[in-house]
Design goal:
The complex is a heterodimer of chains A (386) and B (136). Chain A is of the alpha/beta class and 386 residues long. Helix content of chain A is 33%, strand content 18%. Chain A contains 14 helices and eleven strands. In chain A, strand 10 and strand 11 form a beta hairpin. The radius of gyration of chain A is 19 Å and the shape is globular. A five-stranded antiparallel beta sheet of chain B has the order 6-5-4-7-8, covered by helices on one side. A three-stranded antiparallel beta sheet of chain B has the order 2-1-3. With 136 residues, chain B is mainly beta. Chain B is built from one helix and eight strands. Classes of the chains: A alpha/beta (386), B mainly beta (136).
Chain lengths: 386, 136
């Protein structure tokens, strides 16, 4: 009988971002994958020759493995947008628990800003998206992902000020972080008076656009004990994944994402934990409405409470639910598929190595979203093996 | 309006042929009785193949929208576009543009009634929606 993939039987034993993030004119997309991978392997005290499983999105998994000198016996190219890496962690845990792989390397790299060997975005005009969405000028993340927000606010009697409060709260986490792209403290008025990109979204309600990458090394808890830094292992307690669809206009409920509800529910169930057990939350924030959806859809607050929860400071330093403690996609970095950076911050927090370190932290919930309310991935991580 | 031109596929051709005649045509399932969108030759709710094309009322309500101030080519970067999700009177949701009204949030009221119009786009005509009646 194989071990459970959850409840701490599998661990993240190496984690690193690229040496610098933001503007990287010195590296291609593949180079960003490689730099992050070698940093993460060094962090784990392992080499590419120790790796037998590879998972990535954006590039073919075998391109990354060959580039690094890895000979994989297990590959995962799941590509569902920015939460692909949450799914990779989950899939890698299943592979490690079942013996299909022993040491899995998960890589991300994107030249979102400098666009060095970044693939061109050429959607088909005969796809369902091309025929029924793109032709209406819904072309880019800021004119697609943002579309349900006014409905969400109206259904709850919430306002655009609530979106601005999300930006202010997350900026507060980023001001002391030298790696963050936007570091200047801001106010609701300042966020609202910025240039409107796609009403109701002003510039600071939209994520930064950066270059960077990150990588994770995973193995069994048993193997983790024999590595260089056994006390820095971060255990997977629970996880979930889900998908709705790639047409945001067909979202069943514009005010709530089934993917979030479904993947988070499975993560709590598989971990055997409840909301009160969670010390820290990373919620994928390509745009300012997403933390509001995440707080409500994951069940951390009731419907309609998310805006005031953030505005009143409950996600801030020393508050009940520190959230997006790196500043998030809105302030820290966003290379295109941000999910890897959300996991990296959760790992830093659980190791006690974050720049804005949360005190007495045992568990972190990481919620990712893929494409535009298309897919979702949830992880519950801990520095304690149950 | 300048913009991307859709390319029909065999499954969607009746939709675009209807639009070119000034008709909003979507599919209805004879097994469960529900209309659905986007086009496909089976019902997404019950998987029945017993589906028909139906010219619908063209009435809708505004569910949500953004005003895209940064359109990219082939759209005109200087002309803001009201990109909306509407709910047809028959039930299905569609993405569309709101026309016949300024891109002004004070005029764009969620749930406002809309009616279909058709806009030239190359050789094609796109269903778009305008405020219905004198409600504005």
């Amino acid at each position: 009988m194989t071990a459970s993939m959850h409840r701490g039987n599998v661990a993240i034993v190496g984690a690193s971002e690229t040496t610098t993030i933001g503007v990287r004119e010195d590296l291609s997309v593949l180079g960003l994958h490689a730099e992050a991978a070698l940093n993460a392997l060094a962090d784990a005290g392992l080499s590419p020759q120790d790796v037998d499983g590879i998972a990535t999105a954006g590039l073919p998994a075998m391109e990354v493995s060959h580039h690094l000198g890895v000979a994989p016996r297990w590959l995962d190219g799941t590509a569902v947008g920015g939460c692909s890496f949450m799914l990779h962690v989950r899939h890698a845990a299943a592979a490690i628990a079942s013996g299909a792989a022993e040491v899995v390397l998960i890589t991300h790299g994107e030249s979102g800003r400098s666009r060095i060997d970044a693939p061109p975005w050429l959607p088909s005009l005969s796809s369902p998206f091309g025929q029924f969405e793109l032709v209406y000028g819904a072309q880019a993340p800021y004119s697609l992902f943002t579309l349900p927000a006014l409905r969400f606010l109206k259904e709850r009697g919430m306002t655009i000020e609530h979106l601005a409060h999300v930006c202010v709260a997350q900026r507060a986490w980023a001001t002391s972080n030298p790696r963050a792209q936007r570091r200047k403290p801001t106010t609701v008025d300042e966020v609202l008076s910025g240039p409107t990109i796609a009403y109701p979204f002003t510039r600071d309600m939209c994520c930064v656009v950066t270059d960077g990458g990150g990588a994770l090394v995973m193995t069994s808890a048993a193997r983790a004990r024999d590595l260089k830094h056994p006390k820095r292992a971060v255990y997977l307690l629970g996880s979930g994944e889900a998908a709705e669809g790639t047409l945001i206009s067909q979202m069943a409920d514009l005010g709530s994402f089934r993917g979030f509800r479904q993947s988070a529910k499975e993560a709590f169930q598989t971990a055997g934990l409840a909301h009160a057990d969670i010390d820290h939350l990373m919620g994928y924030d390509a745009f300012a409405h997403l933390p509001l959806y995440i707080l409500e859809d994951l069940g951390f607050v009731k419907k309609g409470e998310s805006g005031d929860f953030i505005a009143e400071g409950h996600t801030a330093k020393n508050a009940s639910l520190p959230m997006n403690t790196n500043g998030g996609g809105l302030s820290y970095t966003h290379s295109g598929m941000y999910g890897m950076f959300a996991i990296q911050e959760a790992v830093r927090q659980l190791r006690g190595e974050a720049i804005e370190q949360v005190e007495n932290i045992t568990t972190s919930f990481v919620q990712g979203v893929g494409m535009f309310f298309a897919a979702a991935g949830s992880l519950i991580l801990s520095n304690q093996r149950p | 309006m300048a913009g991307a031109i859709p390319i029909a596929t065999p499954e969607t051709l009746p939709f675009w042929q209807g639009a070119n005649r000034g008709e909003l045509r979507i599919q209805r399932c004879n097994a469960c009785g529900k209309h659905y969108f986007y086009p496909r030759p089976f019902c997404p709710k019950c998987a029945s193949l017993n589906v028909v094309w139906d010219t619908v009322s063209g009435k809708a309500r505004l569910l949500s929208y953004i005003i895209n101030n940064r359109p990219l080519p082939p759209f005109d970067p200087k002309t803001p576009i009201i990109v909306a999700i509407v709910e047809l009177a028959e039930g299905p949701q569609m993405m569309t543009n709101i026309v016949g009204i300024a891109p002004n949030p004070e005029l764009l009221i969620l749930d406002m009634p809309l009616r279909v119009e058709f806009e030239e786009r190359g050789e094609m005509r796109l269903p778009v929606f305008a405020p219905d009646g004198d409600t504005t």
